[in-house]
Amino acid sequence: MGTYFSKKLFYNSKKIMKIFFDATVFEQPFTGVAKSTLELYKACFDIDSNIQFTALYKNNLYEKLPHKIKSVQIAKYVPNKIWRHLVISSKLKSEKNSIIHFPWNGNIPKLPSDITVITTFHDVLPLIIPEYFKSNKEKVQYCKKVQKDINRTDLLITDSEFSKKQIIKNFKLKKDPIVIYLGPSIKLKKHLENKYNSYFLYVGGYDKRKGIEELINIFLKLKQEKEIESRLILTGAKKYYSAELKKLIYKGIKNNSISELGYVEDNLLANLFLNAKALIYPSKYEGFGLPILDAMSLGCPVVTTRETSIPEVGGDAPLYIDSDNKNEFTNAVINIEKDINLREKLKAKGLKQSKKFSWQKSAANFLKNLQKVVKEI
Q1: Over 80: is that where the pLDDT of 5 sits?
Q2: Helices (H), the chain
Q3: Cys-Cys link to 223, which of 81, 83, 257, 285 (CB 3.0-4.6 A)?
């Protein structure tokens, strides 16, 4: 999962290495992509203080970036599509032999030939999620776009061996992608009063691939049958993908079985992990699965699936389920609810597994591979 290396191996000169990055993902509430990108950059500073990261953005950022990162807001009144394809390119023409990182799945404009381009494709899940595309034409357009981004990239990064295999399988590559695992992105800064006596936690977007609808159906049934006492707390942006999902959540809130908190800041989320009986994450399609790692790093037991990249992150620490097997899913929730010894066992395994991942290792891997492709500085 990456190795440390001396600063001298990467950059002997006192000259500043300029790395620009597309900060579009920071213009909205910080999700896993934004948080993991910042953690990577902060760890890079620890390895080499001669690196200068500069955020390029159009719209106001949702939160201030760390003071070590320069922020440049340019051409804020230019339409989005023109901004990306003309303004970024124009800005970099004046920055000879520099580097730019696109951390949010590509969308790369045509850039000067002396610019080193780094692209992070966290996944290509649309190609494996059933019925993701409305038509074959839409799928072809997606593949063309991704291939164009790959063609414009000098260093291609992805989050897992699973995603790497999917990229290799579906696209023509000059070089294989480099796997750079994520590290824990949530830290406990201050203990807060626990407002909930007993609960399970779901963290993530309201996306069909996440298995949230199946989770809520099982949970409401268990509560109705009085098999469990704990409530279910949902965190993540309230973007309902169906009327049925909204109806189910409303039903759970009404009978006091579900609490829907929406997007929560990091310290509150860390406290929720600390006090939860378990994170339940029944996702079927992941490029990594950051909530699993965050939960384990904070001593929260995990219930999840063996699908896609998830076993790479979880190892032998989670209680794995087949999300399509209702009996197995149901029994897992009941067992976690009633068996404190099981929870303690999962907690210990999770803490051990989470130590295999760190941003220091990831940053060293990032810089080592950047050294191999960077153009003359």
Answers
A1: no
A2: 7-10, 32-47, 80-82, 88-93, 136-151, 161-170, 212-224, 243-254, 266-275, 290-297, 310-314, 326-338, 340-354, 359-373
A3: 257
Is the pLDDT at 8 greater than 80? The verdict is no
Instruction: Classify residue 231: in a domain, yes or no.
Output: yes
C-beta atoms surrounding 345 within 10 Å: 14
> Does residue 4 carry a pLDDT above 60?
no
Confidence of residue 375 (pLDDT cuts 50, 70, 90): low
Q: How many CB atoms lie within 10 A of CB 64?
A: 9
The 10s digit of each residue's pLDDT in 98-157 is 899 999 999 999 999 999 999 999 999 999 999 999 999 999 999 999 999 999 999 999
Q: Residue holding tokens 């009063």?
A: 193
8 A C-beta contact, residue 283 and residue 318: no
Distance CA 124, CA 170 (A): 9
Length of the chain: 377
pLDDT of residue 2: 41
Asked if residue 211 and residue 171 are part of one domain, the reply reads no
| 189 is a domain residue | no
- pLDDT over threshold 80, residue 15: no
Residue labelled with tokens 């995603």: 163
Do 165 and 205 belong to one domain?
no
DSSP for 290-301? HHHHHHHHTT--
Residue in the block written with tokens 């509430």: 29
Q: What span, in angstroms and rounded, lies between the C-alpha atoms of 145 and 137?
A: 12
